[in-house]
Every structure is written in structure tokens, then in C-alpha cells.
Amino acid sequence: MTGFIIYFTLLSIAHLFFCYFGMHTPRKLTKPLLLLSLAACYACAAKPVDGAVLAALICGLAGDILLIWERTDRFFIPGALSFALGHGLYALSIFRRTPGATQSHLITAAVFIAAYIAVVAYMSFRLEKHVDDKKLRILMPVYLSIVAAVNVFAWVNFVARINSGEGQFYAALITLGSMLFLTSDTILARCMFVRDVERPNFPVMITYIPAQALLCFGYIGLGA
């Protein structure tokens, strides 16, 4: 695992270097390698392999490939749908791993649902005035809500793990990863619709890469 972490860190640094300096050809070549590497790592290191997590990583790979071509609008919706499916699979995997009866988590879930409804509503309000396409104006808050739902599941799992005294560290990785994913997608939306972010690929990827990596390692650590 140490060797993989060194390899993945170097690959990530190289990709971020290409993003920062606008070197588009090597950026496009290295971007798919990130999720391909994480998917391969999960498939080899997880004991046992959760098909939903592996499928979520593959959905991320597909989304990355589809969104490489920023100027081609026809790939945007399929790419977003691929990521949305991946988020749904992540949420399912977290739900399966949350200890304790579902009823015991209702209050915790209600608190975080309320918090994330406020977050998504605020982000959507700030962004939608910049979105000209009516279809995207509807889909954007729906997509952000799906990402926020993963955050809610992650927080519920983390609180349950603290109470049970088992797996807190790996649950924390998943929670942090889900928060970074929401951050990355919010930056991406701002880059697309407001277009006031310099070197847009860099802030998106510097949050997206650790988000996916933390989720991958968190699931490996928690097991089935």
C-alpha cells in the first residue's frame, strides 16, 4: 500500500501541475489514470471487495473521461449522470456499513439533513442566476442534493462509529472525502456558470483528488 500511495501522490502532483499551468494535453492524459488507479487499488486491497464501491469508482472514471472535453456540451449531462450514480452507490455503501439500528440514527440524520438542505439551498440560490439553460437550472440543485445526501450518510455513520468505538478513523476519512466532493462540485459549478475562477481545473482537482482517495481508503479500512 505504501508503494501505491507514493505512486498516486506523484501522479496527483503531476496532474495538478498540468492543471495549474494550463498544459491541457498531459492534463487530459493523466486525469483518467487517477480514478483508474484508485479503482485498481480498491479491487486489490479491499477485503472483501464491495461491488458498489468499485462501481462508484468506475462511475467516477467514466465521468472524468466524459468531462475532459469541457467545450463539448453533449458530454456534460452523461458525465454528471455518471457521477450522480457513483454518489448513489457511495451512499448505499455507507448505509450498509453504519452500525446500529436505523431507528437509532433518525435524530442525527434529521440534524444533518436540515443543515445540508440549507447549504444546498444557499449554493443553488447563488449559482442559478448565472445558469441560462432552464434544464441545468433544475438539474444543478438536484445533483448537489445527491452529493449532500452522501455527506449526510457519512456523518450519520461517523457519529454511529464514535458511539460504537469501532472504525472511527476510516469513517472520518469517508466523511472528509464526501465533504471535499461537495466542495469540488461547488467549485466546478462556479467555474462553469459564473466563470470567475482563475485556472479553473486546479481548484476543482485539488479538492476532487483527495475526495476520491479518502473515500477509497476509507472503504478499504472499514471492510464489508
How would you sum up this structure, described in words?
The chain is mostly helical and 224 residues long. It contains 8 helices and no strands. Helix 1 (2-20) packs antiparallel against helix 2 (24-45) and helix 7 (168-193) runs antiparallel to helix 8. The protein is globular, with a radius of gyration of 17 Å. The two termini are 19 Å apart.
H/E series, N to C? HHHHHHHH
Major pleated sheet: none
**Residue share in β-strands:** under 5%
Oligomer description: single chain
Radius of gyration: 17 Å
Structural class by secondary-structure content: mainly alpha
How would you sum up this structure in a few lines?
This protein is an all-alpha fold. Helix content is 81%, strand content 0%.
Index terms:
8 helices; mainly alpha; 224 residues
Helix-strand layout with pairing:
Layout: H1 2-20, H2 24-45, H3 51-66, H4 76-97, H5 106-128, H6 134-164, H7 168-193, H8 201-222
